[in-house]
What does this fold into?
Amino acid sequence: MDVYLCEVFKKFIIDILRMKKLDLILTLEVVLFAAVVLLFILFFKSKGSDKFDTADTVGITSVDAVADGAIVYINTDSLFQNYQMAIDLSEELAETTKKLDAELSNRQRSFQANVNDFQNKAQKGLETRAKLAEMEQQLAADQQNLLQLSDTYRMQIAEEQNVMQRKVLQAVIDYLKEYNRDKGYQFIMGRAFGDNLLFASPGLDITVSALEGINAKYKAENPAKATK
It folds into this structure.
């Protein structure tokens, strides 16, 4: 299920990048971002957990837990598609990628123009062999610099993705801990289409409630983005 969940959020981020019409670092695994965020099965002790010790819980079956409302789930597809923090951070990454893409494209065009100039002069004999050799060496150095710049940009995006991943993961964990103080659930599980959770009663789905709460918390903490 963890691998599938990673793919779910990966698809979500890639869709955002495509809407922005980006070209540069789609060769990246754009969503290393999502990988840990989606490893989202959280265990929470109930508010009244002090009433139970190990001996008390030995006889509790999964059916008992469900009957007591101790296990609920969140639709992770819906959560990450509609969690404003994830959306905002994804758009910020897309904007950064777009800028780096434009800069790299400009440098590539400049390099290609220099290559064309070299070829033209070499074919027409417009420069001495010594000058052409010098131009050729410069082009080789420029090409190497261009490749290094592309790698640098890829690493920059990957690092920003990792930071985003930690931010979203921590925000989700922090909120669900608060959310669960009044709920007393034993487990809050993540569910996505095609995962190992083949069936769950709709009555155990807390996606809407959790999403409303986590978005309200995020917007309250980020008033400048509340008008989105």
In short: Confidence is low (pLDDT under 50) at residues 1-6, 16-67.
